[in-house]
Amino acid sequence: MTDKHKFCFIICTNNRQQLRECMMYLSLLHVPKGYTTDVITVTDAVSMAAGYNEAMCSSDAKYKIYLHQDTLIIDPFFLDRLLKVFQKDSQIGMMGILGTERLSRDGIMWHEQRCGNFYCLDEMIRDGAEGVERLRRGIREVEAIDGFLMATQYDLPWREDIFHGFDFYDVSQCMEFRRAGYKIVVPGQKGDWVIHDCGAPSYWNYEQGRQVLLREYPEIAELWKDRKRILFLHSRQIQSIGIPTALTQLGHNVTIPEYKVTLECGGLVDQRDREAVEEFLERGHYDLAVSYDFSQGMSDACQTFQVPYYAWIYDSPLMGLYSKEALNEVNYISVFDKKQYHRLNGLGLKHLFYMPLAPEIDNFGAVHIGKRDEKKYVCDVSFVGRLYNNRGFDEIFDEKGKDYLEDAISIINGMDCAWNKDTTIFGKASDDLISYMITKLPEDTWNAWNIDKCYYCESMRLVRKCNELERIRILETLGRSFRIRLYADTSAKKLLKTVEVRPWLDYGTEMPKVFYLSRINLNITSRSIESGIPLRVWDIMAVGGFCLTNYQPELEDYFEIGKDLEVYHDIKEMEEKIRYYLNHEEERVRIAINGYRKVRQKHNLKARMQKVLDIIFQENCVVGEAYGEEYC
C-alpha cells in the first residue's frame, strides 16, 4: 500500500564519509506538516539500476528521491518545493535539478544546452557546468534529467536488465517515464538547492552503456535525426562567428571550444592542433567539423575519426589547399572563385566545390551607430584595405636580378589598373623570370606544397607587388580630386601623400560603421582573385553601404550592375562614377538599399550553410562548379 504522505531518500553508497555528510544535510530538511521521511541506503550495489530497484521495491513512500552519495541538499525547504511541483500536475512523473530540453542524438545529456541551477565546484566547471541555463522561476519540461538527483511520484522499474554499471541509468529511466506518458521537469530555483560534489567523472565502460542506451531507445536518435552535432573551431587568425551562428539558426547543435587551431604552419601539421581536435572528436560524437579557411591538423584529426570536415575558404589562393592534408577523404572544401576551383580541381581534392561567399548579416549588419560614430566615420569615399607593401617581392631582386625586376614591373604596368572579363596577370611572366624567382625561394617551399611553381611565383610575389602599385596609383590619383580616406596599417602613411590614412579597423565593431557611414565604399580586388567576389563586397552591401568595386566576372551572376552596386573597369571610369554618385545622392542611396535587400534575402550565410549541409549529407547532391537549384 502506497503511503501518499511519505518521502523516501534512496542512496547507493560505497563511501561512508560522503554518506554521513549527505545524511547530515537530509536531517536538516523541513518536513511538511502531516508527512514523514525515510532513508534507504544500498551498499556496494552491482549497478545503480539494481540498487535503485531494490530500494524502490522495499519502500511504500509515494515520493522517492534518488540521489548520489555526493549530492548535498542545502535548501531546507526542498521537500516543500518538491511537493508543490508534483501536486501542481499529476502528469509530472519525475523532477530533477538539472536537465536538458532536447536530448542529444548520441544520448549524452551535456551535449545539448542544459537548464537548472546547482552549485558548481571547480571540477564541474571545467567539465562544462558553466554552460547551464539558470532557471530562476517557473517549471521547465525536459527530455532528461541528471542522475545526481531524481525525484518521482510514480514507480517504474529501473532497467537493471540492460544497464549493468553506473552510466546512462538516468537517461534510461527518463525514457521509461516518457514512454509511460509522464512529464519530466526541472523547477526554477532562485537559489542553490543542491551541491553536487562529484569531482572528476569516471568513463569506465561509458561507451558500452551509451551503445546499449541507443539500441534500447532508438527514438533518441530518431527524434532529432536532422539535427547535426557540429564542432566549430576558431583559428588564431580568424575568429568570426557568422558560420556557427548560421548553423545554430538552422537548428543544429554547435559546440565552440576555446582552443584555436593554426591555419598554416609552414606546410606542416601542427601536432597540438591534431591532438586537441582528436580529443574533441573522441568525446563529442560529432557529425561534422567546421572552420574558416583550412586547418591541416583539424583535417588530419577528422580523417582519423572519419568525421566530415568542412572548410569555408575566403582567401584565394590559400596555401593550405596545396598540402597533402587537403587530399584527405573527409574534407569538404568550398572556394568562392570559379577559376580557382578549376585550378584546384585537377589536384585530387575529394569534395571540392564552388560556393560564393556571404556576409554575416545578423552579426556584422546589426551594429548600433550613434552620434559619435557619425562624427568619427562619415566621409565621402573610403577604402578599407592594406597596400600589400613589404610582402617579399623586392627582396628577391638583387643586383643581378635588375633585368628580371624590369620584366616584372613591365607586366604589372601592363595591367594598367584595368579590369575586364578576360583580364589576368597570370601567364604573362617569361620562363626566365619564373626560373629566377624560383631560385630565390626556399627549396622546402616545394616540399611543403603541391603547387605549380609558376603559379606560386605569380600569385605570391607578382600579384602582391601588382596589388601594391595599383592601390597606390589609384588612391593617389583619386586623392587629387576627392577626399579619400584609407583604413590600413601605419606604413601606408609613408607611401601616400594625397590620402587621409587611418588605423586598421576591428572587423566586427568598427568596419560595419565605416561601410554604412561612407557615401562611397571602394573595393579594389586582389589580382589573385581572378573571377570571384571578395568578402569585402558582400560586407559593404550587408550593412546598406554603397559599393563601387572593380569589375569581376562573377558579379553579374548575382547582382544587377547599376541597380544593386556599381563597378568600374579602369581609373577613369572610377573617377567619373565617384563624381557622379557624390552628386546624385538619391540614386546612390537607392542602389545601396537594393543591394542590401538582395544580399539579405538571397545571399546570407544561413542560406549558404544550408546548401553546404545538403552537399555533405544528401546523397543526391553533386559537388562541383555549379551553384543554384541544380545543385541537388
Description:
Helix 8 packs across helix 23 (605-617). The chain has 23 helices and 25 strands. It is α/β, with parallel strands linked by helices.
Could you name the key traits of this structure?
632 residues, alpha/beta, 7-stranded mixed β-sheet
Describe the structure concisely.
The chain has 632 residues and is of the alpha/beta class. 37% of the residues lie in helices and 17% in strands. The longest helix has 27 residues, at 453-479.
Quickly count the helices: 23
In order across it, which strands form the biggest sheet?
A: 2-1-3-11-5-12-9
Average of pLDDT: 91
Total count of strands: 25
- Alpha-beta classification: alpha/beta
| Main sheet properties | 7 strands, mixed
Radius of gyration: 31 Å
Proportion in β-strands: 15-25%
- Compute the separation of the termini in Å: 62 Å
Q: Enumerate the spans where pLDDT stays under 50 for 5 or more consecutive residues.
A: 122-129, 628-632
Helix content class? 25-40%
Per the principal axes of the C-alpha atoms, what is the gross shape?
A: elongated
